[in-house]
Amino acid sequence: MAEPLLIVEGLRIAYGGIQAVKGITFHVDPGETVALIGANGAGKTSTLKALARQLDAAGGSVRYQGREISALAPHELVGQGIALVPEGRGVFARLTVTENLEMGAYCRHDKAEIADDLERIFALLPRLKERHGQLAGTLSGGEQQMLAMGRALMSRPRLLLLDEPSMGLAPIMVQKVFEVVQEVASQGMTILLVEQNARLALQVSRRGYVMESGDITLTDAAGTLLDNPRVKAAYLGE
Amino acid sequence: MDIFLQQIINGLVLGSIYALVALGYTMVYGILGLINFAHGEVVMIGALTALTVVKLLAGSGLPGPVIALIGLMAAAPVCMAIGYGIEKIAYRPLRKAPRLAPLITAIGVSIVLQNLAMMVWGRSYHSFPAVLPAEAHEVLGATFTDLQVIIVLVAAGMMAGLLLLINRTRLGRAMRATAENPAIAQLMGVNVNHIISLTFVIGSALAAVAGLMVSANYSIAHYYMGFILGLKAFTAAVLGGIGNLAGAMIGGILLGLIESLGAGYIGDITGGFLGSHYQDVFAFFVLILVLVFRPSGLVGEKVAERA
Ligand SMILES: Nc1ncnc2c1ncn2[C@@H]1O[C@H](COP(=O)(O)OP(=O)(O)OP(=O)(O)O)[C@@H](O)[C@H]1O
Ligand SMILES: [Mg+2]
Question: Which positions fall inside the ABC transporter domain (chain A) (predicted)?
């Protein structure tokens, strides 16, 4: 069994005096898609932000490829192979689609391969190709989500952190976004997927963690979680 | 003599200088949301540094433009270092403080720089040696000098270069991304602190050029000149739409024209009651009008940002 790509132990996050994440432990193996599901305010976004060094953890350790990364500067993370697609997409509204994608490759210097990857992303997300010269702020929500994912892929990550890719999208667009997630996963990408849409998230994942008010309360194979009566009642609306 | 054409020429020269200084305000505002009120003092230090070097070399037999260029090469690094230092020492520690704190600090930095300059250069006016070609040419009853042509052309060149840098290079893209969303830019691997430092350094380099221009154009420099010049350039930035590069350029040129034409005609307008030394009121009149009627400036419209 290979060493996990990411090992999180006892991670705590606090805002002021309030504990948002209360010492969670989980791991992600190379090549797998892992879902982190939970209700509003459970602490999912906070967890991803701590992994991407967007905020400082109050305690615990985050090891990636066997190395502690919780002391890295925020801008050093992407160079290590970790890319976050943030909640709410965070595209650069005043940059064009192509410029957004080029920003994804900011820390790379292999010009020719960046150009190849750009074509690959356009092939994966044809809607973006049609709109390559358009300002990202004028894209639809679904297109912006695609762009945010494409931008993250442009950094050639080894670990992709996705924060609620389905948020605020029409069902047809959610479907499309998840098709892309599955396509990327099938090419061997390691993905940590945060979602409120638990059913979809578990359907594309191998394993899942359930987070409730700052704690991980349940973990299992994704298929098992889908059949779990508690999960069904709380997150699948059955 | 055609006073209208003459004032247009003067206005373009003045406006080019305002535009270069306004860019410094607008770039910093675009990336930090901060008005760097000390920027005018950076221009002043650039002017005095360049003037001092030009004075030293004035009798050396070197051609005038070469002397001016050496003056600039001395002033630019000094200004860049000061710009870098201001950000690092005065603004960076306040990055997360309420907005009023850096504003007050900016005024404090202004006073410090002014006093430093006073200690180095004294309170007196320094005259800029006439090393640059100043013969007047005549067109249609108006006159202009080679120096004025050089000022306009160099300013235009610098602005074109800046636009290319910002809009066409990887670095410029990172600067625009950082201006829009520093947290996300950081996710892309952008060292936001570097970008912010660089913004101050570039703005200060432009300030050095403007300082040389203004002291050569008026043949004079002194420790207090940065205040009014800074305020006018700030007005130009607001007029164009603060945070917007093209806006700063347009606002600068426009303000130069308004001021020149205003100074040229104020005597006629007021029946001789006010003279051309009231030139400065136009800038502040413009500032008030813009703030009241169009605070976002002429080209300061935001792109629609959809969720
Ligand atoms: N910047 C902040 N300041 C203070 N409290 C915060 C901040 N960000 C998050 N919180 C709090 O931390 C807790 C966890 O928030 P977080 O955004 O991580 O939840 P989440 O699981 O991502 O929720 P959602 O599904 O709604 O996105 C919440 O109680 C929230 O109010
Ligand atoms: Mg969230």
Answer: 6-238
